Amino acid sequence: MKSILLIDAATCLLMGAALLVATGMIACLTGIPQSLLFYAGVLLVPIGLFMAATGVWWRESSFAIWMIIVGNVLWVVASLALLSGIIAPNALGVIFILAQAVVVAVLAWLELKAHRSGRS
């Protein structure tokens, strides 16, 4: 469980940093609104820190693990909802949103599987 949580934390922190540092460039390439990318980056930093803390110190906390799993599922749902007409990204933007949603869904599934098996 620890390694999965730390991988999830690293992906959140890296994506958050990328979105904060390169918001304008990513917006130009993807057609995703700059403000959406910026605030997603802002959200990902504390989320990633919480995941890292859970992986290092709180991995026995079922509540913390479930918060991460449910949060990941909600992130995937929100990502897909964006593509239902809330925003109109270009083809690269659609690929960007779908790719990150797939990665987050896989991480949620791995976390759920590890949590249910009782692996720390």
Layout: helices, strands, pairs:
Layout: H1 2-21, H2 23-30, H3 34-56, H4 62-86, H5 91-117
Helix pairs in contact: 1-3, 1-5, 2-3, 4-5
- The residue fraction in helices comes out at over 70%
> Tally of extended strands?
0
Radius of gyration: 15 Å
Share of β-strand residues? under 5%
Low-pLDDT runs of 5+ residues are none
Structural class: mainly alpha
Counting DSSP H or I runs of 4 or more residues, the number of helices is: 5
Coarse shape: elongated
Tell me about the biggest sheet?
none
Order of helices and strands: HHHHH
**Straight-line distance between termini:** 5 Å
Name the average pLDDT: 95
Describe what this molecule looks like in 3D.
With 120 residues, this protein is an all-alpha fold. 86% of the residues lie in helices and 0% in strands. It contains 5 helices and no strands. It has helices at 2-21, 23-30, 34-56, 62-86, 91-117. The longest helix is centred in the last third of the chain and has 27 residues, at 91-117. The N and C termini lie close together (5 Å). The model has no long low-confidence stretch (mean pLDDT 95).
